[in-house]
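A favour between colleagues. Tell me how you read the following sequence-structure pair.

===
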Amino acid sequence: MATNEQIIESVKSRQNNGREFSILRRIPNFLGGELIVIEVIKSEQLIGENYVFVGFDKTIKKTFLSMDELAIWINNNRKPQKDKGFLSSDYIPAIIAILITITICGYIFMKLYEKTNQEIKVPEILANALTTILGFYFGSQINKPKVTSPKVEDHTA
Protein backbone atom coordinates (compact mmCIF):
# COMPACT_ATOMS: atom_id res chain seq x y z
CA MET A 1 0.00 0.00 0.00
CA ALA A 2 1.43 3.34 -1.06
CA THR A 3 1.95 5.82 1.74
CA ASN A 4 1.86 9.61 1.35
CA GLU A 5 5.66 9.67 1.60
CA GLN A 6 6.02 7.11 -1.20
CA ILE A 7 3.61 9.04 -3.37
CA ILE A 8 5.53 12.29 -2.88
CA GLU A 9 8.84 10.45 -3.40
CA SER A 10 7.59 9.12 -6.77
CA VAL A 11 7.07 12.72 -7.89
CA LYS A 12 10.40 13.93 -6.47
CA SER A 13 12.25 11.26 -8.44
CA ARG A 14 10.93 12.73 -11.72
CA GLN A 15 10.66 16.39 -10.72
CA ASN A 16 14.00 17.95 -9.84
CA ASN A 17 13.14 21.63 -9.83
CA GLY A 18 10.81 21.70 -6.83
CA ARG A 19 11.64 22.08 -3.18
CA GLU A 20 8.37 21.38 -1.48
CA PHE A 21 5.86 18.76 -2.45
CA SER A 22 2.50 18.24 -0.83
CA ILE A 23 -0.69 16.38 -1.60
CA LEU A 24 -3.20 18.93 -2.78
CA ARG A 25 -6.21 16.66 -3.29
CA ARG A 26 -7.29 13.11 -4.01
CA ILE A 27 -9.74 12.08 -6.71
CA PRO A 28 -11.26 8.70 -5.82
CA ASN A 29 -12.83 6.28 -8.32
CA PHE A 30 -10.55 7.49 -11.11
CA LEU A 31 -10.26 4.75 -13.75
CA GLY A 32 -10.50 2.04 -11.12
CA GLY A 33 -8.05 3.67 -8.75
CA GLU A 34 -7.27 7.06 -7.29
CA LEU A 35 -5.64 10.13 -8.81
CA ILE A 36 -3.57 12.15 -6.37
CA VAL A 37 -2.69 15.75 -7.21
CA ILE A 38 0.67 16.93 -5.86
CA GLU A 39 1.54 20.61 -5.76
CA VAL A 40 5.15 21.55 -6.43
CA ILE A 41 6.44 24.70 -4.70
CA LYS A 42 9.76 26.41 -5.24
CA SER A 43 10.81 29.59 -3.44
CA GLU A 44 7.36 29.83 -1.85
CA GLN A 45 5.76 29.93 -5.28
CA LEU A 46 3.56 27.29 -6.83
CA ILE A 47 5.32 26.09 -9.96
CA GLY A 48 2.92 23.37 -10.98
CA GLU A 49 0.96 20.26 -10.25
CA ASN A 50 2.01 16.65 -10.72
CA TYR A 51 -0.26 13.64 -10.69
CA VAL A 52 0.09 10.15 -9.29
CA PHE A 53 -2.21 7.31 -10.26
CA VAL A 54 -2.65 4.72 -7.54
CA GLY A 55 -4.36 1.53 -8.69
CA PHE A 56 -7.19 -0.33 -6.96
CA ASP A 57 -4.54 -2.49 -5.26
CA LYS A 58 -3.19 0.71 -3.58
CA THR A 59 0.15 0.61 -5.41
CA ILE A 60 1.62 3.46 -7.44
CA LYS A 61 1.03 2.75 -11.11
CA LYS A 62 2.19 5.93 -12.84
CA THR A 63 3.48 9.43 -12.14
CA PHE A 64 2.72 12.34 -14.46
CA LEU A 65 4.58 15.65 -14.60
CA SER A 66 1.84 17.45 -16.48
CA MET A 67 -1.82 17.31 -17.40
CA ASP A 68 -0.72 16.61 -20.98
CA GLU A 69 1.09 13.43 -19.91
CA LEU A 70 -1.96 12.35 -17.94
CA ALA A 71 -4.33 13.00 -20.86
CA ILE A 72 -2.13 11.04 -23.29
CA TRP A 73 -1.90 8.11 -20.85
CA ILE A 74 -5.69 8.07 -20.35
CA ASN A 75 -6.23 8.13 -24.12
CA ASN A 76 -3.77 5.29 -24.70
CA ASN A 77 -5.14 3.12 -21.89
CA ARG A 78 -8.87 3.51 -22.31
CA LYS A 79 -10.77 0.43 -23.32
CA PRO A 80 -12.22 0.60 -26.83
CA GLN A 81 -15.99 0.42 -27.07
CA LYS A 82 -17.12 -2.94 -28.37
CA ASP A 83 -19.59 -2.94 -31.20
CA LYS A 84 -22.68 -4.51 -29.70
CA GLY A 85 -24.03 -5.48 -33.07
CA PHE A 86 -27.57 -5.54 -34.36
CA LEU A 87 -29.18 -6.85 -31.16
CA SER A 88 -27.85 -4.16 -28.83
CA SER A 89 -30.24 -2.47 -26.44
CA ASP A 90 -30.20 0.61 -28.69
CA TYR A 91 -31.98 -1.27 -31.48
CA ILE A 92 -34.43 -3.47 -29.57
CA PRO A 93 -37.28 -0.89 -29.32
CA ALA A 94 -36.96 -0.24 -33.05
CA ILE A 95 -36.99 -3.97 -33.83
CA ILE A 96 -40.13 -4.50 -31.73
CA ALA A 97 -41.86 -1.52 -33.34
CA ILE A 98 -41.04 -2.84 -36.81
CA LEU A 99 -42.28 -6.35 -35.95
CA ILE A 100 -45.60 -5.05 -34.59
CA THR A 101 -46.03 -2.82 -37.65
CA ILE A 102 -45.32 -5.75 -39.99
CA THR A 103 -47.81 -7.90 -38.06
CA ILE A 104 -50.58 -5.31 -38.42
CA CYS A 105 -49.81 -4.71 -42.09
CA GLY A 106 -49.79 -8.48 -42.67
CA TYR A 107 -53.19 -8.78 -41.02
CA ILE A 108 -54.62 -5.99 -43.19
CA PHE A 109 -53.20 -7.50 -46.40
CA MET A 110 -54.53 -10.90 -45.41
CA LYS A 111 -58.02 -9.45 -45.01
CA LEU A 112 -57.70 -7.61 -48.32
CA TYR A 113 -56.66 -10.83 -50.03
CA GLU A 114 -59.83 -12.52 -48.80
CA LYS A 115 -61.72 -9.89 -50.84
CA THR A 116 -64.37 -9.40 -48.27
CA ASN A 117 -66.67 -6.44 -48.45
CA GLN A 118 -66.43 -6.06 -44.72
CA GLU A 119 -64.67 -3.14 -43.10
CA ILE A 120 -61.14 -4.15 -42.19
CA LYS A 121 -60.70 -3.67 -38.46
CA VAL A 122 -57.34 -4.19 -36.82
CA PRO A 123 -57.69 -6.10 -33.54
CA GLU A 124 -57.69 -3.67 -30.65
CA ILE A 125 -54.80 -5.39 -28.88
CA LEU A 126 -52.54 -4.98 -31.94
CA ALA A 127 -53.53 -1.34 -32.40
CA ASN A 128 -52.86 -0.59 -28.72
CA ALA A 129 -49.54 -2.42 -28.81
CA LEU A 130 -48.45 -0.51 -31.89
CA THR A 131 -49.45 2.84 -30.41
CA THR A 132 -47.69 2.12 -27.12
CA ILE A 133 -44.50 0.82 -28.66
CA LEU A 134 -44.22 3.58 -31.26
CA GLY A 135 -44.96 6.19 -28.59
CA PHE A 136 -42.28 4.74 -26.33
CA TYR A 137 -39.74 4.44 -29.13
CA PHE A 138 -40.16 7.96 -30.47
CA GLY A 139 -40.59 9.41 -26.97
CA SER A 140 -37.25 7.92 -25.91
CA GLN A 141 -35.55 9.57 -28.89
CA ILE A 142 -36.38 13.08 -27.67
CA ASN A 143 -33.76 13.33 -24.89
CA LYS A 144 -30.93 11.69 -26.81
CA PRO A 145 -28.17 14.15 -27.72
CA LYS A 146 -27.79 14.83 -31.40
CA VAL A 147 -24.47 13.85 -32.89
CA THR A 148 -23.00 16.67 -34.90
CA SER A 149 -19.70 16.94 -36.64
CA PRO A 150 -17.24 19.39 -35.12
CA LYS A 151 -16.93 22.74 -36.81
CA VAL A 152 -13.58 23.40 -38.41
CA GLU A 153 -12.37 26.95 -38.04
CA ASP A 154 -10.65 28.56 -40.97
CA HIS A 155 -7.59 30.51 -39.79
CA THR A 156 -6.48 31.66 -43.21
CA ALA A 157 -6.32 35.37 -43.73
In short: The helical segments are 4-12, 67-77, 92-113, 124-140. The beta strands are 20-30, 33-42, 45-54, 60-64. The radius of gyration is 30 Å.
